[in-house]
Design brief:
single chain; two-stranded antiparallel sheet; alpha+beta
Length: about 100
């Protein structure tokens, strides 16, 4: 038997939380059918919008990829900020522990 996780919304007092508990496939499918599944027309509109956005941004993405291939590689300039962020995170963790 395969288990899937389905969200169960629980409210207590003034707070609400979403818990995940294991459900069988049939229960998971029933949950999806009963709770906020997009209709086919909504899925088609969303797919059309995604395709439109893809085709609108495609020339810019193509130009950016061409420019990035022609640019000089400067990994040392990128490693300095990344290293600074990593050290800062280690500092925050050390301050939180001690």
């Amino acid at each position: 038997m395969t288990f899937y996780y389905a969200p169960i919304i629980s409210t207590s007092d003034s707070s609400s939380a979403v818990y995940f508990c294991p459900q069988t496939l049939d229960n998971f499918i029933n949950y999806l059918r009963q709770n906020h599944i997009m209709e086919i027309w909504e899925q088609l509109i969303l797919g059309g919008m995604a395709a439109l956005i893809f085709f609108l941004f495609r020339p810019g993405i193509k130009a950016a990829l061409k420019q990035s291939n022609e640019a000089e590689k400067d990994w040392q300039g990128a490693l300095l900020p990344i290293g600074a962020v990593v050290l800062f995170v280690f500092l925050l963790i050390a301050m939180a522990k001690g």
